[in-house]
Structure formats: structure tokens, C-alpha cells
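Consider this:
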Amino acid sequence: MVVRSHYGKVTDNLVALLTEVLGARNVLTGDERENYARDETAKLKPVLPEVVVKPEDTGSVAKILKLASERNIPVTPRGGGTGLSGGAVPIYGGIVLSLERMNRILEIDEDNFVATVEPGVILSDLYQAVGEHGLYYPLYPGEMSATIGGNVATNAGGMRAVKYGVTRHFVLGLEAVLANGETIQTGGKFVKCPTGYDLTQLITGSEGTLAVITKIMLKL
């Protein structure tokens, strides 16, 4: 059951606007939504979103969030749906923003030991890609099909955390979109950034409540 709230409802007009931005194949309003009503949390009832959107780039994410913000529509970001705490379940209905199509490995910088990836990249693909360059990403939260974006959003740890630390120890920088559609850049290919607040670490582990992550720089 959807939790009662003060949020607005998704209208046919909003669906039409989302379709204009993303194309029909990236906007789901039918039975396919059932696949986005749950994660892997045991005993948690599924909640059907009013619409599922699948952006393919940062600009599209920004447009989605701006449209939703203007109409007070709740947005639930979603990675691989492998979480065990219900973070991807859209308890207020609204929009599920699935980042599965933003799954490109943008750069593997062998000189600086940094991988730049989109949030929909899954762990197994990252392991293979960096391994081909003789590099290593040590974290393993327990699910090879988990996405990097989901790992960052939840500050995932796993069985190797005792030796290597958790996800936040490997995040050097982020690109993220705020609720109003504004895109920000935090951190970069360096270990220390003494200017201002550490927004990279603030967003890491915030589970989509502060921003939607669209690009990640990882230390290898």
C-alpha cells in the first residue's frame, strides 16, 4: 500500500512530457512497473510506482527531476534493485527513476588509478574492465549484479570491508543532480580537496535523498 502523503500525483500530461524527454521505450506505465515495486528485502510489501523512467544521460535526469519538483511528485532512484533495506521501494508512489541504462564505463585512468563510471555499471563489469588494465577494485558487497551507483548511494561494505574499508573510502568525485534539476560536480581525481565542504562524502551514503548520482570517480 502506498503511504499517504502530501505529494502530487502523476498525470497523463506529466507522462507525455516524460515521454517527450526520454522516448516511449524509456517510460513505463503498464504491467512492467511491477518489476520496480520491490527490491530484495524480505517481507517488505511491494509498492507499484505510478511511472518508471529510464534516462540515458545526465541531461535527461535533470529534466525529470525538474519536472517532478515543479509538480511535487516523489522520485525514488533505483540501481540494480539488489538492496536489502527497502531503499528502492517507492513507498510514496510517484516516479521510479531507474539508472540501468546509464551503464557506461567512461574512463579507466591507469596513470592515476581512477575509474570514471556511470551509476548503472554493475560490479562484475567493473571488475572485468579494470582487470584488463591490470588494476583492481577491492570492494565486494555481496552481489555481483549490484550497480556502482547503488553501492555509492548506500555506502555499501560487504565481506572485504574489514580489510579495505567501505565504498566511501574509494569515491573521489561525483556528478549529481539536485531535486530542482541543477547538476553539480564534487571532488575529482585527487585525494585531498581543502576547499569548502566535502560534498562527495555527504552525498555518498545518502540513499538518493540529497541528489541523484550520475557519474562516479573511483579509486582503484
